[in-house]
């Protein structure tokens, strides 16, 4: 991490959760995973704070119950920065374009095959780190975990312990619930208004596509409208 906000004396006197908050609350941890689009396979990283952050050396760890850990390259985000109020989109399909979008292929390393859980017993964890090692809580900037029906899937929860000890996730056993109709996730609000706040499943909402009305539905609406018009005459 490029900016340290605690003196050695303060660091020696604080517990790990307090130390992490003193170092990062309101600073680097204003960079958060704001949305995940299952359809386009795109993840949005957003800066809720007032400081521009240099992303050199930052890496993603994506993980599911089958793949194990997938790490993006150590230099994949070099040269990128995230200004206050801006977003950076990580696009899996390699179709992204523009200065605010990076294709997964250009990050190096590995990325999870699919951001969508396919069904029962499937779960995903995603974290963004300032550097490795990935098991070190102080290196973790943000974390999200979601599963089919919110089930606790032991094979995919290895990073939950890191996120919980980093005060980034309330309980490693709790997951955002999605189902086969879910089209993505969105962060409802900035969950770090002050030191000591953590993500939880209630911080996120699962999105569902609104189905287009069928021809029969249009016909029913037309009939209802016609009946209403006749009553008014």
Explain the overall architecture.
The chain is an alpha+beta fold. The protein has a single domain (8-232), classed as Immunoglobulin-like, CATH 2.60.40.1260. The chain contains four helices and 13 strands. The strands form three sheets. Strands 8-7-2-1-12-13 form a six-stranded mixed sheet, with no helix packed on it. A hairpin with a 3-residue loop joins strand 4 (59-64) and strand 5. It is globular. Mean pLDDT is 79; it is low at 1-25 and 226-233.
Quick summary:
By secondary structure, this protein is α+β, with helices and mostly antiparallel strands. The chain contains four helices and 13 strands. The strands form three sheets. It has a six-stranded mixed sheet, with no helix packed on it.
